[in-house]
Inverse folding.
């Protein structure tokens, strides 16, 4: 009897427990919960990341508000003023690499900045202003605390004097104007004449490489019609070349060959005309001999021809 009551009591308790368990509805996971569960990190780590994200957003908003009211600029200006009062201000400029150009424009740019604080000086801006100087091919600007600015200059190399519109100007191989030249102080460089002749200087140098024996004899060249060269030699003669890189190089090589055999230069001939590949025309000074208008281009022997 007692055994039966114990069994019934146990069954009743088991039944109540089972019924209670059946009464609870299973908790459904939301889409966010499923996404978090799929991540390869713990829930605690996700919470930390979310907290830092909130802090980051708050900092960005605070920075935006500060920028709106100009607080960062005020702070930078205050720091620059404080550094200047402490002696960190540009007082000296050390220029390196200068051989030909006048250094004064470099000093004027370096010391002419409105803000000369060593902390806030805009070095890229200073460099850009120096690159506007004709002689400056490149520049590197650096600070040496407490008060010195170091300027390393790479100068352009002058290769010719450009004559155009009544002015004489020193130029480099790219045709960049370096400075003006006075007629009484002409450097020992070839003279290129004519509109846009400065932009053809590199091509002229390449052309003369085809006749290295004539290169030291070249006194100048005129860029004619924006299409071809007239070369002028130190002995006074002019050589008219045809248009085009290939044709002008071929004519110059042919002329150098003939000059090597017959010594054309220095014989009083005024002009050689090789614009026509089938003719070699030369002109003598008036009164010396009657002009001979044309000579076959393949005839190197000129002795006795007027």
């Amino acid at each position: 009897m007692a055994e039966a009551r114990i069994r019934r009591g146990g069954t009743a308790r088991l039944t109540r427990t089972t019924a209670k368990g059946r009464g609870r509805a299973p908790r459904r996971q939301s889409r966010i919960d499923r996404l978090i569960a799929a991540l390869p990190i713990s829930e605690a780590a996700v919470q930390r990341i979310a907290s830092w994200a909130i802090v980051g957003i708050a900092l960005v908003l605070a920075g935006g508000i500060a920028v709106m009211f100009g607080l960062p600029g005020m702070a930078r200006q205050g720091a620059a003023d404080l550094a200047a009062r402490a002696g960190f201000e540009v007082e000296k400029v050390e220029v390196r690499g200068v051989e030909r150009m006048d250094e004064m424009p470099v000093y004027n740019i370096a010391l002419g900045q409105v803000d000369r604080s060593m902390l806030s000086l805009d070095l890229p801006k200073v460099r850009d202003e120096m690159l506007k100087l004709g002689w400056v091919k490149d520049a590197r600007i650096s600070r040496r605390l407490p008060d010195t600015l170091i300027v390393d200059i790479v100068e352009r190399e002058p290769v010719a004097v450009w004559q155009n519109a009544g002015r004489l100007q020193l130029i480099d191989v790219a045709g960049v104007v370096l400075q003006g030249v006075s007629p009484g102080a002409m450097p020992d460089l070839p003279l290129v004449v004519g509109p846009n002749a400065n932009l053809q200087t590199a091509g002229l140098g390449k052309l003369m490489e085809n006749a290295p024996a004539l290169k030291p004899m070249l006194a100048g060249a005129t860029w004619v019609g924006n299409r071809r060269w007239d070369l002028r030699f130190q002995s006074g003669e002019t050589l008219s070349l045809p248009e085009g890189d290939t044709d002008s190089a071929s004519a110059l090589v042919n002329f150098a060959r003939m000059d090597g055999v017959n010594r054309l230069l220095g014989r009083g001939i005024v002009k050689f005309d090789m614009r026509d590949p089938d003719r070699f025309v030369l002109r003598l000074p008036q009164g010396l001999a009657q002009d001979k208008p044309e000579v076959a281009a393949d005839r190197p022997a000129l002795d006795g021809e007027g």
